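Changelog-linked ticket: 5-amino-5-deoxy-1-O-phosphono-D-mannitol example.
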Amino acid sequence: EKGGYDYFMLKEIAEQPKAVADTLLGRIDEAGRLALDEVHIPDHVLREVNKVVIVACGTAYHAGMIAKYAIEHWTRVPCETELASEFRYRDPILDQRTLVIAISQSGETMDTLMALRHAREQGAKVLAICNTNGSTIPRESDAVLYTHAGPEVAVASTKAFLTQLVACYLVALYLGQVRGTKWGDEIGSVIRELSQIATEVDKVLGTMEPVRELARSLADKNTVLFLGRHVGFPVALEGALKLKELAYMHAEGFAAGELKHGPIALIEDDLPVVVVVPSPRGRSVLHDKIVSNIQEIRARGARTIVIAEEGDDTVVPYADHLVRIPATPTLLQPLVATVPLQVFACELATARGNEVDQPRNLAKSVTVE
Ligand code: M6R
């Protein structure tokens, strides 16, 4: 059932273009508008929403962090993303106009379930983004948008993450559509790019051999750091989480802007640092800032592993290893930038002789608090 792959994780990484395409299927109509009738929250309720709160754990939380950038940019509705395990205990401010989005692959994560129960008790509407039909989280929510990743067996979440991102983008765009905010050229072109994105994910998968080779060469390292800005920051966190759970290595993700506030002290000779570089088009400020971050860490001896868009030549002089990803709008970049990080962690785990599909101490779904 591993379909010729050594591990479920490899199979699931390879299934990502299909998972992404399946999650989009039937949800964008011929006129290029979102058709999400399955979200049974009436438009007038969505128009009244004055705050979005996303709750999730682990990888799903990283998807939620990325969703915050998309929701606020496309809808201008304030959005916060919080670890489900922290949410309930700080007495959060919620009411009928709050839309809570609970993201969960399994639909059985206890922390997320408890968070949504708390939200509903306060009168908030809860929309679940879930991969498992009929599981507890969607059953207890007001509405559900299913991701169509198919069953995910490996403990490390990969295809579910990409489809959670797609679902989050769809919800963000849909909110924009219903509320009429920023519904212009930008949104139209994002929808067009989104409908092509599975092909781009597939392209990335076709270029991963150098990443595998690089991972094998780092098998003896103790630490790998990950840096990103904007949506690249949660991608960095996700890259670090994958490496922790699979390779049992010390891995940390930082917002690149935080370097000078502490983490730069960690940089030493030959320390591998993965940097996710935003597109130089569009928000070029972000791009230029991260290029100077790469220069700074390299000047202190870091071995830089740079993930950058095709055609972005400014990074070439500062990259010890360069991983190319296709050009995408900034907000969609996580869909392509995460893939090399998954492959990297999987290969490192293999090189270190770890059990890829069943990492030590972990369960696929965490049904206790
Ligand atoms: O089933 P869920 O999406 O609610 O699970 C949340 C986390 O437990 C999960 O994403 C976990 O972090 C993964 N093992 C990460 O690869």
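Closing comment: Example verified and attached. DSSP finds 13 helices and ten strands in the chain. Residues 57-60, 104-106, 109, 112, 155-157, 241, 245, 365-366 surround 5-amino-5-deoxy-1-O-phosphono-D-mannitol (CB under 6 Å).
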